[in-house]
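Propose amino acids for all 142 sites.
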């Protein structure tokens, strides 16, 4: 299982994005390996917003259709996840972690996931998760 943050999904949607190739390669490799691609509900909302903003409603609708067809496995948040998110946002207030990144971390802890697909090295290397020493961040090379 691998949890997704927003940026790799958005980068893979636009050839003009700096990390387009590395993100599309990541998706291809994970799909070929049969990996479960977990999509937090918060990330889905943020991706939808960004795709609409950058590419319009057709691009956003394409993403949503892909999720509906099983490109990702949607993961909802629990009350305990929200409580943990509040702890993380408070604990790392100097980082301005934000709701979406805090949700990815809280879900990773609850589900025992060590791998995060993200372009955000700052937040995900600074936070110390409860269940592993550190997250494995993909793609490995940026």
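Proposal:
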């Amino acid at each position: 299982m691998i949890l997704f943050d927003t940026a790799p999904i958005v980068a893979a949607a636009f050839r003009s994005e700096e990390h387009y190739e590395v993100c599309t390669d990541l998706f291809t490799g994970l799909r070929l390996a049969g990996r479960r691609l977990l999509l937090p509900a918060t990330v889905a909302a943020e991706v939808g917003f960004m795709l609409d903003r950058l590419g319009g409603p057709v691009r956003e609708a394409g993403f949503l259709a892909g999720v509906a067809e099983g490109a990702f496995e949607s993961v909802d948040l629990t009350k305990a996840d929200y409580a943990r998110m509040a702890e993380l946002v408070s604990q790392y207030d100097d980082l301005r972690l934000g709701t979406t990144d805090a949700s990815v971390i809280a879900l990773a802890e609850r589900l025992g996931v060590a791998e995060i697909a993200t372009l955000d090295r700052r937040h995900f290397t600074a936070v110390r998760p409860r269940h592993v020493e550190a997250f494995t961040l993909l793609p490995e090379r940026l």
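Residues 41-55 form the longest helix (15 residues). The chain is about 55% helix and 10% strand.
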